[in-house]
Amino acid sequence: MKHVLLTAAAAATFATGALAQEVTLGRFFGACEDAGTDTTTSTGEACIIQSIINAADAELDGISINTLPTDWGNYYDQIKAAYAGGTPPDVHVMHRHRIPEFAGLGALAEISGDLEAAGIDPNDWSPAALDAVSFEGGIYGVPMDFHANLWHVNMDVMTEAGLVEDGKPVLPSSPEELLAHAQQVKDATGKDYLAADFAQFPIGVRLVLALMWQQNANIFTEDGTATINTDAGKNAVTTITQLFDAGLANPQLNYADSQQAFLNGEAAILVNGTWVVDFYTAQAADPAVGLENYYVADFPTLFETGATWADSHMWAIPSTLEGDDKMAALKVLAFINDHNIDWARTGHMAVRKSVVESDAYTSLPHRDEYTGTAAIAKDTPPSERYGAIQDVLNRELQAIWLTGKSVEDALDDAELEVQDLLDR
Amino acid sequence: MQEPRTSAKRMSQTQAAWLLLAPFLITYGLFLVYPFFRGFWISLHDWNLLAVAFNPDAKEFVGFRNYERVMWGRNIEWGFASPFWQGLGVLGLAASAYLRRVDRLSRFNAIALAVASLLLVVLPGFHPGEDGRWYDRRFWPTVGNTLLFVGLAVPGVTISALLLAAALNKETKAMGALRTLFFLSQVLSVTVVTLIWQIMFSPRQGLIANITETFGGTPINWLTDEQFAMAAIVIATVWWSLGIAMILFLAGLQDISKDIYEAAALDNARGAKAFWYVTLPNLQRTITLVVVLQIILHFQVFGQSHLMTQGGPNDTTQVLVRYIYQTGFRDSELGRASAMAVFLFVIMGTFSVIQFIVGREKK
């Protein structure tokens, strides 16, 4: 018996050593324990991506995928430390806004010459998707989505407040109208008009950024001058603070609490990303959940130009990967690229033209309600210090709505600190 | 009878000592001494974590500029900028001189009080003058937050652990069970502790909010309210690190002879009186030990702030180690982060020295 076991063990070691190429994969999105290999039925970011990875592991010959811990909070710190230690994962997810930092230092592999051999057709990517993974003329990853801030709407609250027309929510077109609608909801239902994570995760920052872009302004220029303490900045911030001051929104809710408030039916609007559309759809179908009539709307234009905060998820491989390891990693990227439609089920916008035009895509729940988002998607100018800049804004904006710091002082401080970061 | 082996073949005592010490010394040198000096070396460079990993020549020697950029500023002046703290320092100086004169304070304590007071007079006096500014506007507030955290957590842990230890210092089964129960929180990891307390503090589903609501109050947003965020992480910390302090106190309590209590009882000192006049004086050394250990431990606070409040709101719970971590890993500025780490080392080193001196005083 012992012999049999030993032989089996040896054979197994030999077999896996000879046949299966291990690909380590780094990602965030959180953990999903029993994702299975069915990519067409899983729900939520974590489970959909893990089902795609599991399917790749099962279907790709000679490749076994080892998914590393999937924690959100410290993802980039971990990846950076892994790169610095010379042991980055063979494949990892990242945001487009991190490309200047990682590709700029030579950490990422330039893969424009390898795509075809791996079975990836970059011509099928939309121009914006190609742009998202491009840096100084090269291609540094395979795009997976566009994600953006949306307005998630509780239609029952809006109906009660008389803010529904032809089955669509009536959304504000100016800061004044925003306040009026919010008051209307409060008077009719006693509920808050707008909920969002203003307290921890930078959803509030993304809101203010969108409102600045809507005035054709930005927080810093391409040549590196911070422009935060401006009229546009003040307008953007006061658009939000007027709601807090009038008691029509609560700035102290964090991500989980604001989401819970919306799902409990305690707020008419939740500002959050595309990544929760399928989750909220599922929640709305659950009779135990307060939210029943769920609608998804494009971020409304309150100033001159339409704009909402957006970013892209993409998959990259380290520049140090070579030979068979690199080919195996590229195959995994190709597999993920082939499953773009499954990933779009989360609510994210697809990157492949063939997917965007398909019936499967256009018939996804609520998809027809936010078709305008792709055209108004925006982000700050590229910077190696994106993370630190977001942090400064988050801190100073929180200071305004959580600690009563004056708008002038906070924007002034934010401008100084962002300038410091740009100058470093 | 066989002759004992010649002494030439035997190791001398010194040799044996070195041999036995070698594994420790090598490990210590490799994993503590070397990294420390390496850290100091890095702090003298402009050192980008990723850039240097891909190109070892990407670092630049800048001397003490990182220290200047972190701790200093433009047009920094000295004056009575914060009257409260500096006033307190002056009072402390006067008190130490007076108490030493009338011999109410040992020489060591008088010097310690004087040094602390002097620092209180000098340090808060620095402020940016006209057109001036700190180069790093977050560093000193972060140090202040860390001090506040230590200032709240250390007495919190010490007092509650002391009271618990005094209450549980009985030889019954129930007390044994309770002792285990109170120690249990200590074995949890910081992630578990912060998760438990995040749920406890949640204004929607938390236990505390539920209790507040039962009594008709409005729940507090503990973790996102400027006034409560620091208190929240201190409460979680006290709950978490009670165990070790309690065990140390229990050990100290069991060292106090029963005779003293009996004698005290004859003088009509029982209960609280006995605690004040017998227990406390006899526990003095244990208290000092616990306090100094806690100070060193809590200066390194990271997880509670990082996981519960992300340093917010508005940086009110941003602490030194989290700032070092962010600077080093998020911003890739390893040189700057190392400079801050050296600063933290100096602070903790000071307290270690104090503990060392206190430990040697009057056996």
Automatic annotation (TrEMBL), chain A:
Signal peptide range in chain numbering: 1-20
Gene Ontology terms: biological process: maltodextrin transmembrane transport; maltose transport
Pfam families, alphabetized: SBP_bac_8
Keywords carried by this UniProt record: Signal, Transport
Gene3D superfamilies, alphabetized: Periplasmic binding protein-like II
Recorded GO CC terms: ATP-binding cassette (ABC) transporter complex, substrate-binding subunit-containing
GO molecular-function term, one example from the UniProt record: maltose binding
Entries under PANTHER family matching the protein: MALTOSE-BINDING PERIPLASMIC PROTEIN, MALTOSE_MALTODEXTRIN-BINDING PERIPLASMIC PROTEIN
Family: Belongs to the bacterial solute-binding protein 1 family.
The protein, known as: Extracellular solute-binding protein
